[in-house]
Amino acid sequence: MNLEIAPPPESNCQIYVGSGAEGGDGCDEVGQYIHGPHSLILPELSGVSSALMSSPGQTKPLAFATTTPLLIKLVLPILILSTHGLFLYGQIKPMWRLTQRVHVDVWANATSTEARVAVDTLKIPHENEYNLHQVKNIRTFTYAYAIQELWKAKHMPGKLLPRIAAVLLGIFSGLWPHLKLVLLMLTWFLAKQPIRRKRILNALSVLGKWSLVDVLVVCVMVGVLNLQWEIRAETIQQGVLDNLPIVAQGISTLYNSQDICSQALHYSCQNPSKLKHKIQCHACLTTVETFFKYPLSSGKPILKGFSTSGGGEAELFVAGLNGIYSFCGAVILSILLSLVVDWYDHRARDHEFNNTAFGPGRGRLNTEEHDSIAPEVSGTLSQDHELLLSLTVPCGVDHRSDADRELDRQILESSRSRSRWISTTASTLTAFFILAAVTSTTMQRMVNGALPSLLHDILGVEWTRSYSFLQLAKTLGAAGGWDWLLMGTFALFIVVGPLIRSLLCFMVFNKKHEEGSSIRRRVGRKTLAAVEFIGAFCAWEVFVVAVLMVDLLMPAITSTIILDQRCSELTNDSTCLEVKFEMLYTFGWVVMGGVFLVLVSQRIRLAHSVH
Q1: Would you state the pLDDT for residue 459?
Q2: Rounded to whole angstroms, what are the CA distances from 112 to 62, 109, 119, 236?
Q3: Helix crossing, 540-558 with 143-152: angle to 10°?
Q4: What is the CATH number of domain 401-611?
Q5: Could you give the CA distance from residue 578 to residue 479 in angstroms, rounded to a whole number?
Q6: What are the beta bridge partners of residue 139?
Q7: What is the pLDDT of residues 188-226, one digit of tens each?
Q8: For labeling, which of 83, 133, 151, 188 is most exposed (least CB within 10 Å)?
Q9: Which residues contact 411 (CB under 8 A, 6 or more apart)?
Q10: pTM as predicted
């Protein structure tokens, strides 16, 4: 039992008597804080909250509580079982697919004498049309495949960190979603003690969002592993002309002159038997070797003699499949079910408190039994629905001097002002950090390998791309369709949730207040409920873990798309293609914003519990 006496008016003191939140069974001693010279000991009230907390009416599970509508009693268990099914479907079905798509229509016609002689030597027509329309599924990924790749740790730096990530992914996206729903079902049907039930629901609310790990991994993959190259024939021609020595070196590294001529003439030029073939091979080999040796003087006149047109697009992207959409919907449904159970838990606790503590319809204790102690008694609930009794009692005569009373008032006001300044500053910084984290570029995609390097050097294709949370969310929904579900999920938990929660905290600590009022008087149950509700949709800590997993998975996945030993001869990079994803130093905004948001939200929770 705790007792607080707030600063009184001339002759009365306001006293708050509570049952204590530790054991949930009440206590028999009255703790006290006295403002003034007199100590008021109220042992008679110590048994009130104990009786209330152990009331038989409070031992009903929510599934059988009178405050729970019949429809909810019937539908909620069905929804929990259905969510189990959605999770299981998402875990066994393909989640995403790596796809290559190429659509190209290009024309190249030899118009000058040099160009026509060169194509005649290679037996190539003067007018050439190249058409390529291809959609190729490179690889399909399941939930089990992601864990398997992390555990094998191929093409990854070390094995310890990837295997830790594999275990975490298995727990948070494999075991935990089902375990959470089982605990929610048991709480719904079996949990009787209000305080214990509340603690279980709070834990499920905090930990429930960790099922998002796999969803956020796919969200980052879809947004980042989206490589596009817009092909224009004129741009390619000019790029090759500007970098002929590099192009000649690259071709000579991959192919020798005999291979090129044999492929162009459709017969071997190594030891041609026919005289006609010998003459044609000699002319072809001379042309190719001259180009390799003198690319600028021999190659430029030929290339300038071509008229080019047309173009197209080549794309490498990740497409979401039914598995990830099902899993994503199951995560959102699971979180919403937790909030619904929490809501009806609040209703049941309020109903039981009002009917048990104050009697049906009365709203206050029967004070006739305690007239000798408290002329007026009213009741309220703390955050944990701990019984708080507000009593107005005579305080007696204050024998302190005016100077002592003024000193006490100044000390109290100074303490309140300092607390208000700290809370106001912290909430303002939180809002600033969150806004900066959402809008600033905090992540970067880099594309390495022989082929991207050549395209960058010759054609100026820029592969590096930076992302903010907002930009990543927009990229997720670019393909439309069911990818809008991924975009909405990412935006809700990574953008909208933290922004709204930081705004609520800012409003709580920066709204106008009466002179001398404390912070706790501005934090009501509705305010706390709003902050806690939005908190279920803030998942930055989950996103950080997802980014670390992507950082491990991305190189292992992309380095095996194109396997050719000759790539190591083109550049210093031994791979043909490798995509990396990393956090920039500006990701510190995310870290600072997340830490401040947790601290400020905790400050609101503590202020409410005191109030």
Answers
A1: 78
A2: 87, 9, 11, 19
A3: 70
A4: 1.20.140
A5: 23
A6: 98
A7: 999 888 888 988 998 888 888 898 988 998 888 888 888
A8: 133
A9: none
A10: 0.76
Which residue type, as a one-letter code, is found at position 205? S
Direct distance between the N- and C-terminal alpha carbons of the chain, in angstroms, rounded to an integer: 15
**Which range is least confidently modeled, 173-182, 192-201, 571-580?**
571-580
Residue 393: strand pairing partners: 13
Q: Are the C-beta atoms of 329 and 86 separated by less than 8 Å?
A: yes
Relative to beta strand 306-320, strand 96-110 is antiparallel
Interstrand relation of 226-232 and 376-381 (parallel, antiparallel or unpaired): unpaired
Structure-block tokens of residue 252: 């000579």
Per-residue pLDDT at 175 exceeds 80: yes
DSSP states of 153-187 as a string? Answer: TTTSS-SHHHHHHHHHHHIIIIIHHHHHHHHHHHH
Question: Is a pLDDT exceeding 80 seen at residue 426?
Answer: yes
- Given a contact cutoff of 8 angstroms between Cβ atoms, the answer to whether 312 and 106 are in contact is yes
Distance in angstroms (rounded) separating the CA atoms of residues 125 and 316: 32
Q: Tens of pLDDT along 82-133?
A: 999 999 999 999 998 888 899 999 999 999 988 998 888 888 888 989 898 9
Place of tokens 């969200």: 219
Residue type, 457: D
Exposed/middle/buried for residue 565 (C-beta within 10 Å: 0-12, 13-18, 19+) = exposed
Strand, helix or coil for residue 227: strand
Per residue in 337-385, pLDDT (tens digit) is: 999 999 999 888 888 777 755 444 444 443 333 333 333 444 444 444 4
Consecutive H or E run containing 430: helix 402-439
- At 471-497, the pLDDT tens digits run 999 888 877 788 899 999 999 999 999
Residue 96 · residue 320 · CB < 8 Å: yes
**How far is residue 327's CA from residue 324's CA, in Å, rounded to a whole number?**
5
Domain boundaries in the chain? Answer: 96-141+226-320, 401-611
